[in-house]
Design goal:
Distance between the termini: 52 Å
CATH topology: Aminopeptidase
Radius of gyration: 18 Å
CATH class: Alpha Beta
Number of helices: 7
Number of domains: 1
Largest sheet: 7 strands, mixed
Order of helices and strands: HEEHHEEEHEEEEHEHEH
Helix content: 25-40%
Strand order of the largest sheet: 1-3-2-6-11-9-10
Strand content: 15-25%
CATH superfamily: Zn-dependent exopeptidases
Number of strands: 11
Length: 258
């Protein structure tokens, strides 16, 4: 399937930019904010409840991101399609960028993909998403506007029946980790929170978006993970948007003083 055949006239664009031109230094990213499937791929052989659960997207981020963008006057660049179509936070050359199995669920529509099939998904979805992020960073650089990259993700309350006690986690690895550590400190100022430092996931060679856009130029960044049961409703998203805005501003002020 050629890349120009994957997305049809009725399919939504693969990337949306919320609050374009926002004045905040924060550039919010949503690698897994959507769970749609292009019409050409049907439903990937999955019932709706599978696409709706955590294997299909980061639950809550599609609602949390715009709220946080408004609270901070930040730009939010978000991806539209399910991570099962293509995971935009993976190197497209990796097998798990288009997984055949996710959390024990077989993905029939990802079985036996040809090289052309994979190229089509990259060209139609991942490349436009990553290009949009790069273009926004370039626009800000040209305007003399600073950028702090903040990638928004969510995680399941339990994995393989093992409870996860953290409400929020901050992921970091290479590049300039100063902001990520300042954000950890800001979250830990609230004694009611159990905060994960590279928990429940660690940022490593598997991650793609932040390393691509933040590491080479040593741009400040953080990847935030919020537990899904806390942002599964609009009320929860609103509450966490307010909490995240406070912590992000505190971390920004902290690094500005150094």
């Amino acid at each position: 399937m050629a890349s120009n055949e994957l997305l049809r006239a009725g399919d939504p664009a693969p990337v949306r930019i919320i609050n374009p031109g926002g004045a905040s230094p924060f550039l919010l990213l949503g690698d897994h904010a959507g769970n749609l499937v292009p019409a050409a791929l049907g439903d990937l052989g999955l019932p709706p409840e599978e696409l709706a659960r955590h294997i299909g997207w980061d639950i809550g981020i599609g609602d949390l991101g715009p709220m946080l963008a408004e609270a901070l006057d930040a730009v939010f660049v978000r991806q539209t399609y399910s991570r099962l179509v293509i995971d935009c936070n993976r190197d497209p050359a990796r097998a798990d960028a288009m997984p055949e199995v996710s959390d024990l669920t077989v993905i029939p529509g990802n079985r036996g993909l040809t090289d052309d099939d994979r190229v089509a998904r990259v060209a139609a979805i991942q490349t436009p998403y990553q290009t949009a992020i790069g273009a926004e960073i370039a626009r800000r650089d040209a305007a003399g506007q600073g950028t702090i990259l903040v990638s928004l993700h969510s995680f399941t309350p339990a994995m393989q029946r093992v409870p996860r006690p953290w409400e929020v986690g901050v992921l970091h690895d290479g590049g300039d980790t100063t902001f990520a550590h300042a954000l950890l400190h800001a979250f830990r100022a609230d004694p009611a929170l159990t905060v994960g430092d590279n928990e429940p996931y660690s940022m490593d060679a598997i991650d793609y978006t932040i390393p691509l856009h933040a590491y080479p130029a040593r741009r400040p960044y953080a990847e935030i993970e919020v537990r899904q049961d806390l942002i599964g409703t609009m009320e929860g998203c609103s509450d966490w948007s307010a909490s995240l805005a406070v912590a992000l501003r505190a971390a920004e002020a902290s690094i500005a003083r150094r």
